[in-house]
Every structure is written in structure tokens, then in C-alpha cells.
């Protein structure tokens, strides 16, 4: 299985999230300035750059995994 773990440091649940990439198919993507599910919500002009970058990383990973 391939799973991308995004973890916002402002998320109160972040201590239970994946913080370390343990295998290439299980990457951890830190989202500095991100809150709970921030990267999974619809795009907003107020999104911090880290959220935009995390979304781009996840899209790139999924494209790689399904190609």
C-alpha cells in the first residue's frame, strides 16, 4: 500500500500522526502552519505556502503511484 501522511503542526492530533517517513511508500509530509485537515480542505487564498506545497507533493506522489 502507498499512504501519504500529512501532519500539520497546529493540529491538536499531530502527536499521533506520522512524522517520519518509514518507507518510500509511506512518506511523511510535514505541514508547518497547518491545522487539522487543512491540506484536505478546498483551496483558499489564505492557505499558507506549506499547505499548498503539501497538496502538490501529495498529487505528485499519487501520479507516480498510479503511473
What can you tell me about this protein's structure?
The chain is an alpha+beta fold. It has one domain (5-66). The protein has 1 helix and 2 strands, in the order ββα. Strands 1-2 form a two-stranded parallel sheet. The chain is flat, with a radius of gyration of 12 Å. The two termini are 15 Å apart. One of its GO terms (biological process) is proteolysis.
> What's the helix count?
1
* Spatial strand arrangement across the major sheet: 1-2
| Backbone structural class | alpha+beta
Contiguous uncertain segments of 5+ residues: none
Instruction: Report the strand count.
Output: 2
Using the CA coordinates, give the radius of gyration: 12 Å
Q: Count structural domains.
A: 1
Largest sheet: 2 strands, parallel
Chain-averaged pLDDT? 93
Order of helices and strands: EEH
What portion of the residues fall into strands of 2 or more residues? 5-15%
Instruction: Identify the overall geometry.
Output: flat
Helix content: 25-40%
Query: Kindly, what is the distance between the CA atoms of the first and last residues, rounded to a whole number of angstroms?
Result: 15 Å
A few lines on this structure:
The chain has 67 residues and is α+β, with helices and mostly antiparallel strands. 27% of the residues lie in helices and 12% in strands. It has 1 helix and 2 strands; from the N terminus they run E-E-H.
Amino acid at each position: 500500500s502507498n499512504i501519504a501522511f500529512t501532519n500539520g503542526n497546529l493540529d491538536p492530533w499531530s502527536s499521533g500522526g506520522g512524522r517520519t517517513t518509514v518507507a518510500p511508500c509511506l512518506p511523511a509530509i510535514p505541514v508547518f502552519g497547518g491545522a487539522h485537515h487543512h491540506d484536505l480542505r478546498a483551496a483558499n487564498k489564505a492557505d499558507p505556502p506549506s499547505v499548498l506545497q503539501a497538496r502538490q507533493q501529495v498529487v505528485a506522489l499519487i501520479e507516480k503511484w498510479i503511473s
